[in-house]
């Protein structure tokens, strides 16, 4: 699937930028191939419009915020959050009501500005941990990966990769047969349950306050269609480590990884910096491999393009649900690989 070619994906919320990064002015972002500019109005309410002035096409993100509006850096035209040009300094008595840029849905949640490019099909997911005082929030990563969001989502629910990708951290290399899992699909995602045995390396022993060399991850995790997940891990001593990760689609090959965690322990018990360091190691292990995979993931698996095994079930359910979504909105799956292989056939 080429994400920029499927209009229905524009109807989901994606975290695009941490709110704090907007304190010093507007910022650009590319979402599903669309260049947007995001800013905070005078009340701190986020706004998002097309990053292209309708006068001479300059990038509005190079401009600045004046009151609630964004000012173009080229000739100073101003736009409000609805994309309407509200000021043309050169003709102050003749505001042009035809001057307009496209505006998008914007909201603030969990420390991020979220954007939907078209009417959202489903709200930003509720995360109960965010409002429970028992949990602290730790912001972890905001960085670009050269991988498709769907690859990262599949990897999140793939019990078979621990033994190999994570053999240096928590994976059990000598036990490659993955734990059983259970999936409960719903309209815009699924709930996943498993109990995965893992190693408990020295760095984790201290963070988890557990002495044993191995432990179990009781996971009750969620996939939020299309490119969001919450891994909810409970360890045998009751400690909860919930990791929220969004692979916000920049374009067909690139994702912005937005990751934050909720922990049921305290800073005294486990320093946030140490928790981030361990999750950094694990995430780098995933990144190294994921960045080598094709970004044009086939949703329609009937082509036999990729081979599968039983533990691939979560990824296959994702592909099926996404394919059904496309069908529901009258879209067919856009593919780059298919076009390429037809070209190769012609050449040979
Ligand atoms: Fe924006 Fe001229 S290009 S005001
Ligand atoms: Co992994």
TrEMBL record:
It comes from the Bacteria. InterPro entries: Cholesterol_7-desaturase, Rieske_2Fe-2S, Rieske_2Fe-2S_sf, VanA_C_cat. The keyword Oxidoreductase applies. PROSITE patterns: RIESKE. Keywords: 2Fe-2S, Iron, Iron-sulfur, Metal-binding, Oxidoreductase. One of its GO terms (molecular function) is oxidoreductase activity. Coiled coil: none annotated. Residues 13-115 form the Rieske domain. This is Rieske (2Fe-2S) protein. It comes from Alkalilimnicola ehrlichii. The lineage of its organism: Bacteria, Pseudomonadati, Pseudomonadota, Gammaproteobacteria, Chromatiales.
């Amino acid at each position: 699937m080429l994400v920029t070619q499927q209009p229905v994906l524009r109807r989901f919320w994606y975290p695009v930028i941490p709110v704090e990064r907007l304190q010093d002015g507007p910022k650009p972002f590319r979402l599903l191939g669309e260049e947007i500019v995001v800013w905070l109005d005078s009340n701190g309410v986020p706004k998002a419009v097309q990053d292209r002035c309708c006068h001479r096409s300059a990038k509005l993100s190079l401009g600045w915020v004046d009151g609630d509006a964004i000012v173009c850096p080229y000739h100073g035209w101003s736009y409000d959050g609805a994309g309407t040009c509200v000021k043309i300094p050169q003709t102050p008595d003749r505001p042009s009501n035809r001057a307009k840029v496209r505006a998008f849905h914007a909201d603030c949640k969990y420390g991020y500005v979220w954007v939907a490019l078209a009417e959202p099909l489903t709200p930003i997911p509720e995360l109960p941990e965010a409002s429970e005082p028992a949990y602290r929030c730790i912001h972890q990563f905001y960085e670009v990966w050269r991988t498709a969001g769907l690859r990262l989502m599949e990897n999140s629910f793939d019990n078979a990769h621990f033994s190999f990708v994570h053999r240096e951290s928590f994976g059990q290399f000598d036990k490659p047969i993955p734990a059983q899992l259970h999936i409960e699909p719903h309209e815009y995602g699924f709930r996943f349950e498993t109990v995965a045995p893992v190693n408990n390396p020295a760095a984790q022993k201290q963070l988890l306050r557990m002495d044993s060399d191995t432990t179990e991850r009781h996971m009750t995790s969620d996939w939020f269609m299309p490119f969001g997940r919450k891994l909810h891990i409970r360890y045998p001593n009751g400690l909860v480590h919930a990791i929220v990760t969004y692979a916000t689609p920049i374009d067909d090959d690139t994702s912005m990884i937005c990751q934050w965690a909720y922990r049921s322990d305290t800073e005294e018990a486990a320093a946030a910096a140490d928790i981030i360091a361990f999750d950094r190691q694990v995430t780098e292990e995933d990144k190294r491999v994921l960045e080598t995979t094709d970004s044009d993931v086939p949703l329609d698996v009937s082509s036999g393009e990729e081979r599968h095994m039983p533990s691939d079930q979560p990824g296959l359910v994702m592909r099926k649900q996404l394919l059904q979504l496309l069908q529901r909105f009258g879209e067919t799956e856009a593919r780059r690989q298919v076009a390429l292989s037809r070209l190769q056939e012609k050449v040979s």
